[in-house]
Amino acid sequence: MKQKRSLLLFLIVSTCLIASPKKAIIFGVTGQDGSYLAEFLLEQNYEVHGIRRRTSSSNMQRLSHLTKNERFFIHHGDVSDISNIAFLIKEINPDEIYNLAAQSNVQVSFDTAEYTANINALGTLRILEAILKSGNAKAIRFYQASSSEMFGKAQEGPQSEQSHFHPRSPYGVAKLYAHWITKNYRESYNMFACSGILFNHESPLRGKNFVTRKITRAVAKIHLGEDKILSLGNMDVRRDWGYAKDYVKAMWLTLQQDAPDDYVIATGESHSVREFVEQAFQEVGISIQWEGTGVDEVGRNATTGKIIVAIDPKYFRPAEIATTHGDAAKAKRVLCWKNTTSFKELVAIMVHADIQNIQNKTDKKEVIQ
Ligand code: NAP
Ligand code: F7E
Questions:
Q1: Ligand 1 in contact with 232 (CB < 6 A)?
Q2: What's the CA gap between 212 and 165, in Å, rounded?
Q3: Is the Cβ–Cβ distance between 310 and 274 less than 8 Å?
Q4: CB-count burial class (<10 Å; 0-12, 13-18, 19+) for 2
Q5: With bands split at pLDDT 50, 70 and 90, how would you rate the model's confidence at 368?
Q6: Is the Cβ–Cβ distance between 161 and 194 less than 8 Å?
Q7: What burial class does residue 64 get, using C-beta atoms within 10 Å of its C-beta: 0-12 exposed, 13-18 middle, 19+ buried?
Q8: Residue with more model confidence, 20 or 353
Q9: Is 150 in the pocket of ligand 1 (CB under 6 A)?
């Protein structure tokens, strides 16, 4: 009799487990990380609810391969609208919420400082408030995509969770508010609220205005004879560039821990924009010869002598971060996270994806800022 009862209990529990996968909400699902995270969570058997903002032209390109998955749902929403956020959280009743929604372009944040604060800073506050008032705050785990831009004019390097913050852009300042308010709700209300201090991470899905993708697209076009010259801003700045697929795994790992905490996610290697350019051209067999200095610097194709890289001062920023360099030792130790993709591999993945995009005519025309 006792054995029968245990068997029945086992069957009920396992049926429930099979029948109800974990539910996750992703704010910012249409972006680079949103797409990779949705894909990753679906592979982990989650039910994924992506929040898509209304735009005049489609923002679903990065998700087209997922829309037929029966565990993937898209809802309209916007982090500037708290009643919408509260409604979605009540309706979906998620186990985990990932906030990737942001005006994520640092240069644009200088022109749209108030808007950037509203989305990146207050957007995070709105989600936290909605969780707190949902009546289910203890059961929901929250992830905030914080940024290495918060370190800004860093006093020391590499930067860890203990490093001093000195943001250098309206974007960085807004992200710092979001970072602290996440920590504050954790400490004030005992919420499972975490941040990942994410250093730059790139991929073939990276927005075309960010420097890595701008370079790999231009290299692909120059290689295929569709373009002649790549114009850039400051090529001396150095970034700690990783692969986005590795970084979304860290987001998920963060929410699987026993206790909420914040983690730096970085490769620990820093490379200049100039090195990125050289490596990308190397992938298509072109060596660069640099000539001149400052805004007069040019890069020539070492074989043909043609100028293929030039400087355009319009890409310089009012304030710049010279170097970012992260120390992800805590994430490695606690989350068992590791970066699996080298700088050279990342550049190769992006250049060859862009060559394919252009050859297959899947590279949509878009104005480059
Ligand atoms: P991304 O490609 O620019 O994606 C941003 C996402 O936010 C998009 O889905 C965008 O929608 C959405 N969004 C913008 N405004 C919104 C609003 N008002 N309401 C709802 N959604 C809104 O950025 P990403 O590279 O994937 O980065 C993901 C997150 O990580 C961002 O918060 C970013 O700031 C942060 N982060 C990124 C990096 C990095 O190197 N990639 C490093 C540190 C931190 P649309 O598609 O409609 O524009
Ligand atoms: O610039 C320099 C530029 O726009 C990288 C976002 O995901 O990472 C990203 O922000 C560097 C800057 O990324 C051009 O001045 C030179 O120093 O690719 P980016 P970002 O500003 O580092 C952080 C961690 C985030 O959180 C952000 O959301 O490259 N640079 N020439 C250029 N940058 C651009 N965009 N275009 C150029 O022509």
A1: no
A2: 25
A3: no
A4: exposed
A5: very low
A6: no
A7: exposed
A8: 353
A9: no
